[in-house]
């Protein structure tokens, strides 16, 4: 069976130099990929291990405009249906 997890090897020195923990690195990567339009808010918040609300608040605190397209509307609608 194939694993759905990908590992990245990185020197501890790089994390230490950046003064980041692994969870913080994941958040920064999620923000960067979202800002570049490479990840939707849903996938970026998943990478950051945050709720969508928390991720959107973080984006707002960094003055990163929300991207809202049809795919994200579909995600939001699916979430609403799940909540019912």
Features of the shown structure:
single chain, 84 residues, mainly alpha
Assembly level: single chain
Shape call: globular
Class by SSE composition: mainly alpha
Indicate the mean pLDDT.
91
Number of spatially distinct domains:
1
Distance between the termini: 34 Å
Write up what this structure looks like.
Helix 2 runs antiparallel to helix 3. This protein has one domain. The radius of gyration is 15 Å and the shape is globular. The protein has helices at residues 12-18, 22-35, 41-48, 52-61, 70-83. It is 63% helix and 0% strand. The chain is built from five helices and no strands. It is mostly helical and 84 residues long.
């Amino acid at each position: 069976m194939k694993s759905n997890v990908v590992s990245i090897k990185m020197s501890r020195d790089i994390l230490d130099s950046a003064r980041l923990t692994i969870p913080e690195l994941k958040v920064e990567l999620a923000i960067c990929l979202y800002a570049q339009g490479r990840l939707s808010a849903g996938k970026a918040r998943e990478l950051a291990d945050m709720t969508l609300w928390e991720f959107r608040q973080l984006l707002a605190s960094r003055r990163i405009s929300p991207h809202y397209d049809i795919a994200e509307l579909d995600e939001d609608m699916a979430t609403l249906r799940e909540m019912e």
